[in-house]
Amino acid sequence: MMAMNAKQPFAMHAALQEPKFSSLHSSAEAMRRVCLPAPQLQGNIFGSFDESLLARAEALAAVDIVPHAKGHHHHHHHQPPPFKPDATYHAMSGVPCAAALPHPAALAAHPLPLPHPALDGGDLLEHLSPSLAVGGLAEPPALPAPPPPAAGPLAVGAGPPAAGVGPPGGPAPPPPAAPEAESDPRELEAFAERFKQRRVRLGVTQADVGAALAALKLPGVGSLSQSTICRFESLTLSHNNMTALRPVLQAWLEGAEAAHRDRAAGPELLAGAERKRKRTSIAAPEKRSLEAYFALQPRPSSEKIAAIAEKLDLKKNVVRVWFCNQRQKQKRMKYSAVH
DNA sequence: ATGCATGAGGG
DNA sequence: CCTCATGCATA
């Protein structure tokens, strides 16, 4: 009997992408803004920037054929394939990493050493520069007082039906520590940490938690993936998302601990997961170019994306998605530094 | 722990 | 097309 992965991605999704944050989000937004280079006085100057930057990035990408250079990393593409190998398909390996994954990897930081416009040379994007210089760099640094909706239509899992939180009869489903939950970043941070600690103490993996959420049968709440649980614990989700998930995870935690004490009602807290598939990967050189370009223009137009895609031998959609993801990453909650 | 991707919902 | 919440496949 094969267990078909019949997952029901309950739709919660972006309910409102409008300015629905009160003040916390403002911080995030502010952070993001300050990250951007002053989008002014650009004009033709940027054209040069753009050109040299991308040219350099591409040059770097092209030097993958150098004998050794740094002394690490050796690629193998950029060959003249009859196709467009923008993506590298790797074989799967079914890694049951789960949560307590003993990876000694320490992660490598990406200081993003933005090159200086001192470089010059190829005008690989000559046909791009013009349009970008005047047509794309019109960032309206406006922020017309975001009206705080006050109401919390977060609808974490309240997509289709009206997941009324607080039905008469069994109210107070999500027992938030604070009725008015300020959603303090510190608060969330603290909770995430405690959550992880207790989760580990229960000997439950992130994947297990995600799967177990469905057993809670909370309205609109299905199962989540290990990724999401992990991101929650590491606070790499948007503030909105964190806030929405907190009650759910807290509910699970309580139930799990209860089941732990009383072994008789929590067999669903364990789940096996089997996955098999492949993921497309963007090669390092291409990634570098993309990063360089992103630093200059986080929001390239379709035309620019198409041009970049062609230059890098990537599918346009891949490039577009890459930019989208970059934006999300840059925007993601990381306010644990500035309040 | 993260990268690339899908999809809903809003413009 | 974009933003956002999520997920699968990976390193």
Automatic annotation (TrEMBL):
Keyword tRNA processing among UniProt keywords: no
CDD domains per UniProt: homeodomain
Gene Ontology biological process terms, A to Z: axon extension; inner ear auditory receptor cell differentiation; inner ear morphogenesis; neuromuscular process controlling balance; neuron apoptotic process; retinal ganglion cell axon guidance; sensory perception of sound; vestibulocochlear nerve development
UniProt xrefs under InterPro entries: HD (IPR001356), Homeobox_CS (IPR017970), Homeodomain-like_sf (IPR009057), Lambda_DNA-bd_dom_sf (IPR010982), POU (IPR013847), POU_dom (IPR000327), POU_domain_TF (IPR050255)
Bias (Low complexity): 152-165
Region (Disordered): 139-186
Feature: DNA-binding region: 275-334
Signal peptide range in chain numbering: none
Compartments reported by the entry: Nucleus
PROSITE patterns tied to this protein: HOMEOBOX_1, HOMEOBOX_2, POU_2, POU_3
Name under which the protein is recorded: POU domain protein
Organism listed in the record: Aquila chrysaetos chrysaetos
Gene that this sequence comes from: POU4F3
